Amino acid sequence: MRWIWIDRFTELVRGERAVAIKCISRAEDHLQDHFDGDPQLPASLMIEGMAQTAGILLGHANDFEHLVILAKIPKVSFHRVAYPGDVLRYEAIVQTLGEQGGTCTIEATLDNGPEAGAAVAEAEILFAHLDPDDPDYKGADQRNFVFTSNLLQVMD
Amino acid sequence: MPMTRDDIFAKVSDRLQDALGVDEDEVTPEATLTGDLGAESIDFLDIVFRLEKAFGIKIPRGELFPESLTAADSNFVQDGVVTEQGLAELRTKMPHADIDSFADDPKVENIPELFTVNMIVNFLDARVNA
């Protein structure tokens, strides 16, 4: 399974905002068990999609010179469940951006069907930068990174 | 127009409540960030970002919350106690902290107690009213 929780970037304003979409498919492995007979996108994976959207936005602002790591989620709330067939729209807005990292707010809304535009979730996420000269760099777990070269394919 | 210390404290308190999930009555001037308010290392970055936004300033890395305070020179610490030389370094690096009180019992393990709400207010008072 690839750790890619957004399907396409649809808007990007450097250092300011980005929009990505996620199409939820019944064929996704995790939906076979979450839950049996009642498939729903796990909230944790929705957060991951929001973090990938915001992480690429922050990485792009610095020409991907830093590794961008999800460091903290100060706020998150969920308003409705997302089901197979739903298209989620993640809109990330930069709140702060500095040498050591940045903060984004992200809103997830439903992007298709009769209830398009309905709020699904919102979060505030803090990201930290990790640089190759940082002593923690070599010990960093790749799985913790918001983006890798694979994930950047969504920007093609 | 200069900001009063009360104004600064009120803004700092709001940001600490947001960053650390603590209640208003927990944020006293004497409260230590790690011991009393439960801050962890990544929270310091969160706090810096919130203060930068709230006060419209840039806080360079290590200016408000210096890192590795006593590791720069082996003469700064002896037998787990910060030396006079180390105290002088702390006074230089952290003019906004209460080094005099710390000097009464300058154990290395007491360094986190320098990081109080009042220390942040002192720092911002000097920055925004300069």
TrEMBL record, chain A:
<protein>
    <recommendedName>
        <fullName>Beta-hydroxyacyl-ACP dehydratase</fullName>
    </recommendedName>
</protein>
<dbReference type="InterPro" id="IPR013114">
    <property type="entry name" value="FabA_FabZ"/>
</dbReference>
<keyword id="KW-0456">Lyase</keyword>
<dbReference type="Pfam" id="PF07977">
    <property type="entry name" value="FabA"/>
</dbReference>
<dbReference type="InterPro" id="IPR029069">
    <property type="entry name" value="HotDog_dom_sf"/>
</dbReference>
Automatic annotation (TrEMBL), chain B:
<keyword id="KW-0596">Phosphopantetheine</keyword>
<dbReference type="InterPro" id="IPR009081">
    <property type="entry name" value="PP-bd_ACP"/>
</dbReference>
<keyword id="KW-0276">Fatty acid metabolism</keyword>
<feature type="domain" description="Carrier">
    <location>
        <begin position="6"/>
        <end position="81"/>
    </location>
</feature>
<dbReference type="InterPro" id="IPR003231">
    <property type="entry name" value="ACP"/>
</dbReference>
<protein>
    <submittedName>
        <fullName>Acyl carrier protein</fullName>
    </submittedName>
</protein>
<dbReference type="InterPro" id="IPR036736">
    <property type="entry name" value="ACP-like_sf"/>
</dbReference>
<keyword id="KW-0444">Lipid biosynthesis</keyword>
<dbReference type="InterPro" id="IPR006162">
    <property type="entry name" value="Ppantetheine_attach_site"/>
</dbReference>
<dbReference type="Pfam" id="PF00550">
    <property type="entry name" value="PP-binding"/>
</dbReference>
<keyword id="KW-0443">Lipid metabolism</keyword>
<keyword id="KW-0275">Fatty acid biosynthesis</keyword>
<keyword id="KW-0597">Phosphoprotein</keyword>
